[in-house]
């Protein structure tokens, strides 16, 4: 199977999209996140070098790459968010006008 890179969509494209979605759901177990992963994989395929349609295996590789990219940044997000919040609290002026 291959994904047509132009606006054309066939039943083969739909079948491939469904297979990608099933794989994405196995990775993330959330419909919204799975849809995002499929979209990222298809976009990466369309923006990649060459105009030739990609085979299914290549799309599944791109799907896993998108998943790992997102997951790599996930553990750092809470730490980074907590650090930014903590910094903002320390830098905020006190309600009494005294330095903190």
Describe this structure in words.
The protein is mainly alpha-helical. Helices cover 69% and strands 0% of the residues. Helix 1 (11-28) runs parallel beside helix 3. The chain is elongated, with a radius of gyration of 21 Å.
Helix and strand content put the structural class at mainly alpha
Portion in beta strands = under 5%
Poorly predicted segments:
1-6
Helix content: 55-70%
What is the general shape?
elongated
- How do the helices and strands follow one another from N- to C-terminus? HHHH
Rg from alpha-carbon coordinates? 21 Å
Distance between the termini: 63 Å
> Helical element count?
4
Assembly annotation: single chain
Summed over residues and divided by their number, the pLDDT gives a mean of 74
Taking the sheet with the most strands, its summary is: none
Report the count of strand segments: 0
Summarize the model shown.
The chain is an all-alpha fold and 100 residues long.
Keywords for this entry:
100 residues; mainly alpha
Strand and helix layout:
Layout: H1 11-28, H2 31-47, H3 56-73, H4 76-91
